[in-house]
Specification:
The protein is mainly beta. It contains one helix and 23 strands.
Length: 428
Amino acid sequence: MQLNRKLAMAVGSLLAVTQAQAEEWEVDSAVMLYNETDSMGQDRVSIFEPVVSITQKNTPDDYVKLDFVYDSLTGATPNGANASSQLQQFPKNNPGYYVKEGYAPLNTNFEDTRIALNLSTMKPIDRMSRFTAGASYSVETDYESVGGNFSYLKDFNNKQTTVTVGGAYTMDWVNPSVGFKDPFSTLGSSTANTTTSASGGGEKELSTFNFAGKEKNTLDMILGVSHVLNSKTLLNLNYGISSTSGYMTDDYKIISVIDGTTGFAQDYVAEARPDSRFKQTLKGTVVTAFGADSLHVDYRYFWDDWDVTAHTFDVKYYLTVGEKLTVRPHFRYSAQTQANFYRLSLTQGEALPKYASADYRLADMTTLTLGAMATYKLAHDLSLSFSMENITQSGDSSPAEAIGDQRTQDMFPTIDMWTYTFGLKSKF
């Protein structure tokens, strides 16, 4: 409770000081609807997400911003097991739910709620430099996170070049409702060696400032350079690193243990992931103006010590239609390689690896995004926006390591995702 009071006092003091100098307030609100299905016709996760951002701005380099996000997630999510031509039950011999023949196993009891707050500010130091600082907090029924960030920006070359150095630190606590499982503990027996969560396992309610469970810490750093190439073109280059240590195993995910000849699941075991990850990114952005229009092109290269690499291309074009309407088509393509401990399944009788996960998000896959956004000015200080995007995620449906029955099944159903966002922005 003392932490709650201190946080409230700090936020209140900061906003009170800046309000006395306020020149402009901006409220940016939006509601996102998200839904995904797979190529087998199964409905997966649905999300309802309202977002509100309040900004008090003196100048573009002098502002305070408060963001609020609420997520409500429902539906079904893959549990990690393989599709089979046989009826499957989870846990095996002690069923909580069944999966029909030929379908990707989904846990249909998936439900979660998240609340996130972020306070950020930018302040000038002198005519050629400024800094940003921020604090964030988010909580879910089984997860809690608190973090802070800081960056320093310095202009050179008559403000045509800007160098940015920044960092962030985040502490997360995971507390799964199913409890913490020992690596590769079997789910086929009621005597599987599990450790209950700090709240006793089972269903939990959203609880702020609990800080219970196993911890994960992340340190991020970034070095960026922006340069005005000419009167119409801006170039931005960023290099970032991220070091995470702590508990990263997903206790909701399992791995099929199959017969080495038939490919049928004999049991299911808990996954195990490394307790550290070091990620690096290189990103380049070019923004070019064409009269009242502009083109934004991004390329991002990602690599880490889990042997995951990814290439991402992102293109947006802002098209001005008359005095009030702006239309922004969007194209994004990303290709990712699998983690070095990703396994389609484990084979009964073979020695267990040190780490293994069947989480499709760690597999080879490509993601294609096509969408558009339209923004309409109702008045000088009031605008409406609507965006719609389709995201298609696909992987290897018939991997070379498939055995027996696995070869007759779709090992990576294509996932089709739709997002719809309705926004309202006002200034006063």
